[in-house]
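Kindly inspect this chain:
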Amino acid sequence: MAITQAAANSWKNELLQAIHDYPGDQLKIALYESSANLGASTTAYTTSGEVTGTGYTAGGKNLTFASSTPKLDTGKAILDFDNVTWANATFTCRGALIYNADKSNRAVAVLNFGTDVGVSNGDFTIEFPAADASNAIIRLN
C-alpha cells in the first residue's frame, strides 16, 4: 500500500467534461494512514485506510476556497484553500485526499506528507502554500 501524491487522473478528465464547479462545489479533505492505497488512479473518497482517532470524523473536513481562487496566475489555473484544523485531536496520518462532496465524492488530488505525522491531544493543521503559480496546492499549466 502507498500514498502517491498526484492530481487524480479521473479529475483531469472530468474537468474537460465540466463536471466540477469551482468555487460552487463543496470540496472536502480526508486524512489517511500509511496503509492507504491512494494515488493518480484514485477516483473517489474511500474509508479504506482513513484515519481514526479522537477529534477526527470519517469524511474529513470541508475546505474553504481561499478568497483569491480559483484564478489564473502567469498562465496557470490555480486552486487554493484556507488552512484547515482538527482541534483537540489524537491520531497519526500520512496523507490526505481532496475530493468533491457535491459530485459523488469524486477524487481531486492526493497529498503525501512524506512521513507519518501525529498529534496527541492537540491541534492538527494543514497549512496550504501560497496561492500563486509556483506554490498553489493545485496548479494546471
Q: What stands out?
A: The longest strand covers residues 106-126. Strands lie at 6-7, 27-32, 61-62, 71-73, 76-79, 84-100, 106-126, 138-140. The first helix runs from residue 9 to 16.
